[in-house]
Amino acid sequence: MRGRPHLHTSYSSDQALMPTTTKKVVLAIFLVLAALAPIASSIPFYPDFLGHNDWMKILSHVAVFGIGALGINLLTGVAGQVSLGHAFFMGLGAYVAVVFGSPPGDLWGLGLPMWIWLPMAGIIPAIVGLLVGPAAVRVRGLYLAFATLGLVFIGEWAWRNLKFVTGGAFAGRRFPDFQWRVWKEETPVVDFASDGVWLGFEISEEAKVYLLMLGFLVVATLVAKNLQRTRTGRAFQAIRDRDIAAEIMGVDEFRYKLTAFGISSAYAGVAGALFASFVGRQIPETWDLFLSVEFIAIILIGGAGTVSGALMGTAFVIVLPRLVQDFTEWLSGIIESGEGTLAKVADVVVAISPDDGGVINTIPGVGPGLSVFQLNQILFGLLIILFMIFEPLGLYGIWLRIRNYWKGWPFTY
Amino acid sequence: MTVVVERSQDLPTAGQGTRTVASLVRDRALRTPDMVALREKDYGIWQEITWGEYWEQVLLAAHGLLALGVDVGDRVSIHSEDRPEWVILDIATVAVRGVTVGLYPTNPAAEVQYLLADSGSRVHLAEDQEQADKLMEVIHTLPNVERVIHAEPRGFRAYREDPRFIFWEAFLELGRRHRQENPQAVEKRMAEARPDDVMTLVYTSGTTGPPKGAMLDNANVEYCFDELINADSRMPGNRGPHSSDEILTYLPLCHVAERIFSTWTSAATGTTLNFAESIETVQENLREVQPTLFFAVPRIWEKLHAAVLIKGQDATWFKRVIMLIGSALASSVGRQRARNGGRHTLASGVLFAIGYPLVFRALRERIGLRRCRWAGSGAAPIAPEVIEFFHGLGVNLYELYGMTENAAVATNNFHGRMKLGTVGEPYPGIGLRIAPDTGEIQTKHAGVFRGYWNKPEQTAEAFTEDGWLRTGDVGEWVDGTHVKIVDRIKHIIITSGGKNISPSEIENSLKTSPFVKEAMVIGDGKNYLTALIGIELDTVGDWATRRNLPYTTYRDLGEKPEVLKLVQDVINETNSKFARVENIRKFRMLPKELDHEDGELTATQKLKRESMEEMFEPLIADMYSGRK
User: Fold this and answer.
1) Distance of CA A190 to the CA centre of its chain
2) Interface of A with B (CB under 8 A)
3) CA atoms lying within 13 Å on the CB side of residue B580
4) Per-residue b/e over A198-218, b at no fewer than 16 CB within 10 Å?
5) pLDDT above 70 covers what percent of chain B?
6) Do A413 and B47 touch (CB under 8 A)?
7) Per-residue confidence (pLDDT) for residue B408, from 0 to 100
8) What DSSP assignment string belongs to A287-320?
9) What is the pLDDT of residue B628?
10) How confident is the model at residue B11 (pLDDT cuts 50, 70, 90)?
11) What CATH number is given for B492-623 in this structure?
């Protein structure tokens, strides 16, 4: 009831996604701000750099991986089935998209419009997920992880050898552009793949893609969030918390595990298709174990089992390397610009030339230090360990703690 | 020749008849059928009952009572926690001109036997298996109980063969059939209602002797509507209860206070009643409902007060600092408001504006009084410190005074004219006097009851020769306008030195400490005062845990030297506020938590002094034996 957030007079108010006006307003403001990022420079007090093309790409990357993270979160976080097969389904989605969406040529392609190839990129992985699922859902825990690990390697082998689809090892192929066509006409109805003017604003290709990805992410989030409060979502959670207890309560374990597998695969497929198209060209090696592990890292850092955790984790994992890179560049700048204690400290941390000593090496492959890439890997590993030990609920857990601190005000419990 | 008057002309048509709670509910249901009348939490959701549905259920229940043969003046008893069925059956009983008798859910079998035999109830509502079991223990002595309605379907397998039992739904179904066969039967009965129809028996709690059933009639209740519920300027902004107000119904409905502040207020003014799940969940339900009007007994206020203090101490250091600042602000605001009759002064307004965003708002949200615009305390004396504290938080808490026998119409602290430590001014126009010789408060007005059920002797004792109701409370005038209650006449202690002492004042002062739950001051005919102290297990347990003091039971905890020291400190603090003759020289800890079932407390948690003195005789004797 209005003004009484705890007085629920119906289940719909009890289960509402946005129970209070404050929440609605905050979310609306956030969405508007996110949508305005491409024209950041023309809005006062808005951080300018977000509108630059490189940051638009990073944000699009976050949105696409966010969709993938929602999928793995559903399977691993909500339903408790640890899967390393996410990369396989992403790859499958990408290649389904390319077969349906790319124009015919040396490689397979049907040249169909986006409204066909994108849904197919979800549907076919879901079907494959349901087909291979029965084998996987018979095992649980570590064994499931191993079984799904197998999928990734089978997938990698397949992608390398299905040259007429994937373009072959280390070559890859171009993926369809983001262009909205009704059918196979020449000029698309909406073209996201070139710069243009929208509503009187100069919008770059990157910004357009970002807006599109943002839209997909919002839809994917709504679906995922809603799913959690349905009978299916509750069944997932029951299985996660104790599969035997869930089965005794009448939850059909096999059916719901399979459903989780299917939905998660659909999310992965769409994310894979969007990712491949967004990058433009992908090689079969993209869809390897490291990609799967990255997604596991995302939900562990973000907080397994929560939608907002999955999104926070994605943002963190995608943006962190960029920050590390900016940081090392900033340090290099200090060294070059001159003297002072800061420059000396920076000199120890960063190596800017082959004969310069330093922990981080800005020139890849030369000198003794770590490359920025290696540093990122170490950081992620460290973060996963630290989160597992100190904050098992991830970034979401930190947020939860901050929120509870104020919720309990002026008491502690 | 005698004139033959047609019988049918005698019958008033529906819509006429005297104003009763039933006619008020009906009229409101006709005016605003879709507004929410009742809310009950079921399966985690506050299920709403509109006025239209409410009246429909009352009608069905009333027809059901007619089907069971309930005649004018027949008693219908209700033994249940607060729930919509309680109110519905109550209103339905009034509609068919029956008499409602409420029992406390905590009443044990023996008291159930006494109350049902004394009232001669014909139809009984036993909420669930627990209450039904109590009844079945004694039903062989109660030939008057013809039918037993049960509100919960579960646990009645054993009684399935017993033709006396009928489930609530089946009872309503019975009413539905009766209504088809005799449409308008209830309306006819209502139209015949008279102002002097007894509508309820409210049993006194019986601190001394067995409970007596006070008879209240429709005229008494109507007087209560006009004088108390709709009293001008009772509430801030001169705005009495109305249909946008929310009330939490949680105190036993058989007590006149909850009946007035829930059922009757809602019938008279259209406020929404929210039924708490149980007495244990009151604090949680308060948070959910955030009532705008809240009446509580001092015990509840003390508990809320203690909860704030304890939780504040348990908070992390930064919050603790903020709480300290908040408490300082609150006590300053509270003091100034109390001195100013409950209104803000300029200074208190400024301090409040600082404290509100910092602590008060969140604090009130946590205890469920964020939207409370009027709060009342009554039924027992409350410590002034507690009132001051809540005024400091911005909760308009006013003490009022009344008793079952005068439909609770006696005195009230009006908003802006409050005097701390008094129970307020008499309602305008009512008869209230303080007998010059005994100091007893006496009232005379249309709300004064008809007498005790079947107890002409006690009824006669309750009135003076010139027809004033003797309240049994000693009072005195403060500034000629406000009344201060000294104590019950029977409780006044006269020491061997001949000094008159009011024990409740001292007891209340002791009970302001969050650690003291029960206190009984003794000393009648002795040369010094002593006290029996019962600790509050939660808070003292918490206190002990934080000092790494291990304990096992209530008794073990109470006998720890550290706890004795803690209680001694509380007593010293109280002693410093009173004259030397009123100081407590010795005390003993009660070895058990006092309980209604064991006969130490009444159903309203008041001390039964005589039985206490009997039960703890060795402890009392020990305090006067000369040993330390």
Assistant:
1) 25
2) 3-4, 6-11, 14, 409-413
3) 1
4) eeeeebbbbbbbbbbbbebbe
5) 97
6) no
7) 92
8) SSHHHHHHHHHHHHHH-TT-HHHHHHHHHHHHHH
9) 53
10) very low
11) 3.30.300.30
pLDDT tens figures, A359-371? 777 766 666 677 8
DSSP state of A2: T
For the record, the structure tokens of B211 come out as 């409970």
- B21, B270 Cβ separation under 8 angstroms: no
Residue A341's alpha-carbon distances to A336, A345, A348, B252, in angstroms, are 13, 6, 11, 75
- Summarize chain B as % helix, strand, coil (round to 5): 45, 20, 35
Whole-complex ipTM: 0.80
Contact criterion met (CB < 8 Å) for A6 and B44: no
Q: What is the mean pLDDT of residues A143-155?
A: 92
- State the best of B244, B290, B317 to mutate against chain A, taking most chain A CBs within 10 Å: B290
Alpha carbon distance A117, B39 (integer Å): 52
Mutation to test the A interface, candidates B38, B314, B319, B370, most A Cβ within 10 Å: B319
Tell me the pTM.
Answer: 0.86
Q: Where are the domains of chain B?
A: 7-194+236-272, 492-623
Query: What's the mean pLDDT in B313-331?
Result: 92
User: Is pLDDT above 90 for A342?
Assistant: no
Q: Which two tokens stand for residue B393?
A: 């938080």
| B450-479 mean pLDDT | 93
Contact A9 B290 (CB under 8 A): no
Inform me whether the pLDDT recorded for A50 exceeds 90. Answer: no
Please answer whether residues A154 and A88 qualify as being in contact, where contact means their C-beta atoms are separated by less than 8 angstroms: yes
CATH homologous superfamily for B7-194+236-272? ANL, N-terminal domain (3.40.50.12780)
